[in-house]
Design brief:
The protein has 278 residues and is of the alpha/beta class. The chain has 2 domains: 61 residues; 149 residues, no CATH class. The protein is 31% helix and 19% strand. The protein has 5 helices and 8 strands. β4 and β5 form a beta hairpin. α2 packs antiparallel against α5. The longest helix has 36 residues. The chain is rod-shaped. The two termini are 32 Å apart.
Length: 278
């Protein structure tokens, strides 16, 4: 046994830190504060998504069936808001000669056929404004062409008419690649605009109108009232849950990094003789 030299101080015993002590160090407290800020942002985003997920003021049952002036529902060039899709409106104007156009691939009670459409030029507005109107359905192209020709023949371009019908969102002008470029198979005011007459300086509504009245030689277009949803957007709820997970992950990341630093410090304090041998 070796005696310790007289007057020599024994080396102080070093005690390894606890995980709690490491977490309370200024560096990790600052990291925790940063994680709190990040988690707070994620929590706010989750609350925002959750607020958008539930419609606190859903439209009354049958609200779309109450006929409104079109100016109270949508403006030219604007997209039709989701709660107003299918709203019945009234609009007055004159039909433009030469613009009764047939649109194919139209289903009426699951039967494929054709629509005859027209350009209704609004009456009583300052700037020239038009809306596309679906006037009726035909089972064959021959019947649709005949009805369009009859409408053209009997048209009084100065007669102001009031059309009541249901507003429907633009289907977009994209057609299948194999489709005939001269054949319109999508109900798109943008596509119809390219074939209309007298369009200089014209404002056009993005949605189109399905007329309640039926023109001679055509069948009434089946356009039932839109179904009332539950008022809950489950996709937004899913996003809100994702933000909550992200907020929790910010704290887990802080804990994992602090624990890794603690374990590394313990390894450095271990005597060399205790290190595992290869």
């Amino acid at each position: 046994m070796t005696d310790t030299p007289s007057g020599a101080a024994e080396p102080a015993e070093v005690f390894p830190p606890t995980l709690r002590e490491v977490m309370l160090r200024p560096r990790w407290l600052a990291m925790l504060a940063l994680c709190l800020v990040v988690a707070g942002v994620f929590a706010w985003l989750g609350q925002w998504q959750l607020a958008r997920a539930v419609d606190t003021a859903p439209r009354e049952e049958g609200a779309t069936e109450q006929v409104q002036p079109i100016d109270d529902v949508v403006t030219p060039g604007a997209y039709l808001p989701e709660p107003l899709v299918g709203q019945r409106v009234s609009v007055s104007g004159t039909f433009v000669a030469g613009d009764f156009i047939v649109v194919s691939s139209r289903f009426n009670d699951n039967v494929q056929g054709f629509w005859v459409t027209g350009q209704l030029r609004r009456d009583g507005v300052a700037a020239p404004t038009s809306i596309a109107v679906a006037l009726g359905w035909a089972a064959t192209r021959q019947d649709a062409d005949a009805a369009a020709a009859a409408l053209e023949t009997g048209l009084d371009p100065h007669a102001v008419v009031t059309v009541t019908g249901r507003l429907v969102s633009d289907e977009g002008p994209v057609a299948p690649p194999e489709a005939d470029p001269q054949d319109l198979s999508r109900m798109s005011p943008a596509a119809l605009l390219s074939r209309w007459h007298d369009i200089a300086g014209l404002d056009v509504y993005r949605p189109f109108l399905v007329s309640d009245a039926t023109s001679p030689g055509l069948v009434e277009i089946s356009s039932p009232a839109p179904q009332t949803g539950s008022g809950v957007n489950w996709l937004n709820i899913f996003y809100a849950a994702e933000w909550a997970v992200f907020a929790g992950f910010a704290f887990y990341l802080w804990y994992r990094l602090a624990k890794d630093a603690w374990e590394k410090e313990l390894e450095e304090l271990e005597p060399e003789g205790d290190a595992p041998r290869g």
